[in-house]
Write a structure and sequence with these properties.
The chain has helices at residues 5-44, 51-71, 85-124. 22% of the residues are buried. It has one domain (5-124). The chain is mostly helical. The longest helix is centred in the first third of the chain and has 40 residues, at 5-44.
Length: 125
């Protein structure tokens, strides 16, 4: 039993939202890798009065990366739920909303990590 055209459109829309979140989380993971490298390099090079700030940035960037991995987790719709399009829509909506919140937290952690890098380099050098 397939989905009605309206239910299929809802399903496609929510999967498109999840795809957008996946792409954003992948980009944030790439940003975090650069940020982690810059922070690690800054910590290992020379004396810095704000090493604890830089280490905090490392932790925040690592946390952001872990949260991004949670966002890009694959979610497949089980075929048995196609018979109940309302339940399917609610489930996908909950997945999208939960991943959006996790992505926003990851983004804020990355921003805080970047701030730690900037402060650590500008003030601590």
């Amino acid at each position: 039993m397939g989905l009605t055209p309206d239910a299929q459109a809802e399903h496609d829309y929510l999967y498109e939202c999840l795809s957008i979140l996946d792409a954003k989380a992948s980009a944030l993971l790439s940003f975090n890798s650069i940020l982690l490298a810059a922070l690690a390099l800054t910590v290992t090079i020379g004396e810095n009065r704000l090493t604890s700030v830089l280490l905090s940035g490392l932790v925040l960037s690592g946390l952001s990366s872990l949260l991004c991995l949670r966002v890009v987790w694959v979610h497949w719709t089980p075929t048995e739920t196609f018979s109940d399009s309302r339940h399917l829509f609610i489930t996908l909506l909950e997945v999208r909303d939960r991943r959006t919140v996790v992505y926003r937290i990851a983004w804020l952690a990355a921003l805080a990590s970047l701030l730690c890098l900037v402060v650590g380099v500008a003030v601590g050098a």
